[in-house]
Amino acid sequence: MANTLVKKGKPYFRVLKTVMQVRYKPPRFLFVGEEFPDGSLILSNHEGTDAPMALEMYMPRHLRMWGAHEMNEGLVPMYKYQSAVYFTEKKHWNIWGARAFCLIASPLTNLFYSGFDLISTYHDTRIVKTLKESLAAIKAGESIVVFPEHSEKGYLAELEGFFAGFALFAEFAGKRGVDVPVVVSYYRKGENTYIFDKPVPYSALVAQYETRDAIVKALLDRCNALGKMNTKGLTEIDYGALAEAE
C-alpha cells in the first residue's frame, strides 16, 4: 500500500493548529529503516501532549490515535479526567490547582480534540469497540498510534512498562487475516526529534517470542533503546517540504 500525504481536519481545526504552532514547533522525523507503510501499528512514548501534538500537527499521514474515552466524550468527562487524572496523577499537580486550571484548559482542549478523530479506549468489555474500530481504520489504510507506557509516576524518559492493549489488538487483527506492521517510535522532547524503527510484522514477533508478555517487553526495550540511539546516519524525511511539493 502506497504511503499518502494528507491535509488533516476541517478548516477550523487547521486554523487552530496554526495558532498552536507558537507552542509546538516542527520536529525532525528520523527513520531507522524505510518509512512505515499505511496501515501500521505505531507505538510511542507520550511526553505529555508533546508527542501526540508532534504527530497530529506535523506528520501529514493517515493517523488515528488511541485515547482515554473520557477525552472523547465532551467537555464534562474531559474536565473530570484532566483535573482528577491527567494533571494530578500524571503531571503531579495539586488537585485544587488542577481544577482551577482546567476551568480554562478543558474547554480549549475539548475544542481541539474534537478534530483529533480519536479512537476511544476502555478498561472493560467496551474494549471490543476499540478493537473493531481500529481494525476498520487499518483496513482503510489508516495507521493506529498507541501510547502504551505506564505513567503512574508521570511521563519518564526511561519507560518502565507497556500496557498490552496494542498486542491484544494485533492478535485480534491477525485472527481476522490482517498481519499489522508494528513500528516502535520514540519522541525526544529536548531535541524535538521523532525516531521511528523499522516496521516488523506482528506475526514475526509471535514467531520470535513465546508469549504476549515477552513481545511487550521486547518492544518496550526497543522503545527505550531508540531514546538513547545515536541518530547519525538515520534517514530524515521533511514532510513539510513534501507537502509543499505536491
Please give a structural write-up.
With 246 residues, this protein is α/β, with parallel strands linked by helices. The protein has a domain at 24-68 and 119-245. 44% of the residues lie in helices and 15% in strands. The two termini are 19 Å apart. The mean pLDDT is 87.
Counting helices, strands and paired strands, the structural category is alpha/beta
Mean pLDDT: 87
Low-confidence stretches: none
**Biggest β-sheet: count, sense, barrel?**
9 strands, mixed
| Dominant shape | globular
The oligomeric state of the chains shown is single chain
Q: What fraction, in percent, of the residue positions are helical?
A: 40-55%
- Please report the total strand number as a whole number: 9
SSE string: HEEHEHHEHEHEEEHHEH
Distance between the termini: 19 Å
Radius of gyration based on Cα positions: 18 Å
Residue share in β-strands:
15-25%
Tally of helical runs: 9
List keywords for this structure.
single chain, 246 residues, 9-stranded mixed β-sheet, 44% helix, 15% strand
